Predict the structure.
Amino acid sequence: MLDQLKNDTLIICTKQYKDQILKNINKLINIKIITMDEFIKSYYFDYDEKSIIYLINKYNINYEIALEYLNNLIYVEDKVYNNEKLDFLVNIKKELINNNLLIFDTKFKKDIKNKDIIIYEYSLNKFEKYLLKDLEYKVININKNNYIPKVYEFDTIEEEVEFVARNISYLINNGVDVNNIKLTNLSDDYINIVNKIFNFYNLKIDKFHKISIISTVIGNKFYINLDKGIKEAIESISCYDTTDIYNKIINICNKYVWCNSIEDLKKLIEHDLKNTYIKDDKYTDMIEVVDYKSYNFNDEEVFMLGFNQSIIPKFIKDEDYITDDIKPIYMDTTIEKNKKERIDVINSIKNIKNLIITYKLKTSFSVYYPSSIIDDLNLKVIKGNIDYTKSYSKISDYITLTNCLDELIKFGTIDDKLKLLNSNYNIPYNTYSHEFTGLSKEKLNNIIKNQNSFNLSYTSMDNYNRCAFRFYVEKILGLKSTIDSFGITLGNIYHYILEKIVKEDIDIEQTVYEYIDKENLSLTNSNKFFIKRVIENLKYLVKVLKHQESFSKLKKCDTEKFIKIPLKDNISFVGFIDKVVYDTINDITIASIIDYKTYVKKPSLKYIDSGIGLQLPVYMYLSSYAYKNIHFAGFYLQNITLDNKSNEEKEKSLRLIGFTNTDKEILEKFDYNYMDSSVIDGIKVNKDGSFSSNSLKQMLNENEIKEIIEITKHKIDDTLNNILDSKFEINPKFDKENIGCDFCKYRDLCFKKEYDYVNIKSEVSSF
Ligand code: SF4
């Protein structure tokens, strides 16, 4: 077709064909190639972010709904439909036109009058034909083959993927270029299993799942800081300025220089952060995952997996904004869409020369049926069988043999392949050693370098000192276990309100719901009920906190204070402190540190020498770095949950629990009523003005506080040195009971034994 192209031709095709035509065209010729979507936007109208933000603000809707309205405007004409939804769209369209918020490309409309229009390898739907009704165009579909694929049925998804991996290995062993092998129709349920099994065969596949910027550490940090302003948000991620994510964020910000409202900016940027993805590195020598409908296949070896009913052809439901019952005659109904989908799938399959189709009958969660297209095309199904006489992956064979031995031992079942595999391999069955086998310093350095930022914090240091392997799993291997997300949501709501309340007077209920909206949180009915209780708790909590503040002469307050102390080799010690109440008097800063907790255990320094439980000392160490000439009136935990308590109990439970300075001059700055304190828990003064012996158990003098900070600093250095020495043994700490494994999420994978426990002593020493 390319040789016969004339000047002044407009080609409408898919993006893949557009790229291919541009690559293969070898003469200078005046043609334009665009996708159908680009054509509709140029010939009719387009919109931009200004149109979106107008609708969001005018109709008090979210970004996605505004987008849905805009995308549906193309379906309505300037007339009365006598239908609420359609007439609403007509009105919006008029309103946007009147406000110059729709973009009309008059030049394009004029230009194409003199052009030949070709629809190339593209299957038009009814509505697209309607849009093109005033134009003359030619449809060219060269690919009209009738190739017949081979179809294989497997009992399980694992067998299906294993079969494909073996076939690909066979092709590669026989000289087929890996770049000439394609996978297609891979749904989300295949991601993990394909990744796992292909790894056994050393097969690398092009990424087929995308990671949005907002879910990265940098993106999330930027987004959280947007509340403070765009400059501040960019500043908060400036340490990542050499990364691709940082550049993408800057590009997003540059798009909105026209926008003056921070509220509008947040809505627009949030959407872009969610829909911009981290760099999808295109490596060579990887098996590419392609879309069978738009990819232009030639001689590639193609594997189409998951050929199951309802998955292929995809079943389209009547869920559009304009539903079938109100659709104008020129729009495609759901039945028509499903019919077209089926025809498109069949045509695509017939045009793939070297195609192997596979499907499964079950996964661990569901039963599946073969796609009805098998009957439509009268395809012969072969019962899939893996030939174990040929081996392409020892690891895979070992695992298969292990599964066969498990079946034999547990159920007495002898699998056909057991004899063959057992006579060829001698595996250490049931002789597992759980011990950590070591990690070279070189590998460790590479892992640390490849992480966007490798910092130590109180939590990671505590984890390391409780059990080095626990730290290794989380920070070095990067494994994260799933956690109760509603619990985290509640914690975030408390922190959000307590941070805001320090800066301004807010309506607590309204601010909680604003937070829920901002974070796009979807709540179950029981969550909603719980949120109401949280709001009541927060109202009471804020009242008491304000009362407590009235006893303090320290009038400054930093919340969610981020402090970073460089340690070595680009590694820093970092921490967020919930609240630092302070003031500077005669060049001396007097401060109290408060950490909010939803569950409070009396803080203790008894494991200070083992580097365990040092949250508050760590915060003092960080504050000593961030604030000049600092002296601590105290460092405390504060319980912020108040469920089912009487008012008197609530008031008591909100008192600060921790350590207080014995220096009365310093203490009275934080709580001038300390002799009868309703702020600090357990401080009592004898008649002679001295502190009671019980109070002294939770009090420290200036020297002791300094010593604690000094020890903490050494513990941080020791911990970092041990980490950099690659010391990651399974060594949970034990002192009459197992304290190392407290709240550890990795119990299922360490297989610890009693001999792994390391006894430590609680060191009360001078404290
Ligand atoms: S469960 Fe205990 S021994 Fe196992 S990793 Fe966790 S802390 Fe270490």
In short: The chain has a mean pLDDT of 90. The longest strand covers residues 571-585. The CA atoms of residues 661 and 702 lie 7 Å apart. The longest helix spans residues 525-549.
